[in-house]
Amino acid sequence: MIETINEDKVKSTKYLMVFKGKRYTYGIGGETRNSLYHLHNGNDIHIYTTCKHGKKWKEFVDERCDQDNAEYDKHDYQIMMKNSTFCLVPRGRRLGSYRFLEALSFGCIPIVLSNSWVLPFSEIIDWPSAVVMGDERLVFQIPDHIRSLSRFEIESMRLQGIFLYNNYFSSINRILMTTISIIEDRINTHWCHETFQWNVANKSPLTPLWIDQRYNNMIESFPQYGSMMIDKHGARGFTAIIAVSRVISYYQLNKFLRASLLSSKFVRRILILWSLRTAVFKQLLHLQSTHPSLILIEISSTNNNEQQSSMNSNRFTCCFNHTAVTTDAIFHFDPESNLITEEIDFAYLVWESFSERLIGFSARDHYFDNAKNQWTYTSKWTNQYSIILFDAVIYHKYYNYLYYEHIYLKNINSTWNFDEECSGLAFNFLISHIIRESPLKVTQRKKTISGGTLFDSWLAWIDRKSCFQKLIKFYGYIPLIKSKIRFEPLLYKDVVSSMRKKYRKLEMIV
Q: What positions does the domain Glycosyl transferase occupy (predicted)?
């Protein structure tokens, strides 16, 4: 991931490292703090200590106390911390110190000098991403270490520290609610948050969200528990979704339905979303009368733009709350698809093993354009991919719920264009953002649609490139993850008897 570092923010600090506090001339904590004055250089590292502590401090004064006390009173504690990049947090009378939270609140990176101190909420917070963990035995190596950090590392640590403080420590209420959330995760381990969820700053309107309990309170209803889903309530099979928003050939659609889709042993329902009142629609009504699993859903609208937006919203919203949808697997097809039954069945079996992934046939990639200094979408066929097109794709219906609740509803009144190409890309971003894994490609097929012109493909490419930039701004980064994996059937193109192969026809497809 390439990010732009705000160098001005890094340069704005007056000091590199500061400390102002009690020296403890006797008792616990004195050994570490008494050696800190060696780090003071009067330039970018400022260390000020005082011997005044407790009623008996005068009994333990040394030759440095008078000078230390005089310098100590000349400097303001908060001003120093606000104007420093790093703040020393040595042990005091106890291992921990409230100075640690004060440093985070000022945007000052804490340097912890307290061996064996377990930092607060350490079971969920990745502290090394926001804090420098020093060693009390190696105090004099600290300046060299922090000077070796890059501007990117320093800026990242400062921003992460501010995020952690604001989210978990900025008030008693936040500390209490964080504690309760951790206890809840310990009790309900099947609902617990992933570690990265606690540590990802809210860079986008949609934060990582594995489980939204508003969707369902049954654990087997979520994609990461795919094996439990199949074993517990036998929800095998998929619901096919075909969205028709353009003029198509009835012959091609009828051929795909009869020869491929209806012949699949895993298909349970076929929902055809139709927005065009044509002769093809009437012919499909006749086909529906002979196939109970085929359901036609008419989408009405007043104009083309509204029709397109309505179609693309319904192709997702209908799939998690429609009474006809009895499966967790949703298989999207283009109305002019030329997939065969064996391809469809094989893709479904792959999905059963990876029910949290987005699985399909047509793969695309993204790359960083040095000339334009930005990430961009590419339709070229490469040896790796990060995107699966929605001409033929299977995934868990839970993602339809997340897309509708967290993407569509939040942007329905904006300038966001919910066309077919952008919706497919948005789904890729959403799933990669949530699971932190790549989509999966099945079989060697590169094209799954028989129709379409070169001009149509060019327009689709332009739409995807434009949408790609919008999605980057929406999320604040690129969640897409690259992969080189392609799934093929067992014994694929092996020199053995064809009778031993389960999906023999796949070898004839190019």
A: 238-492
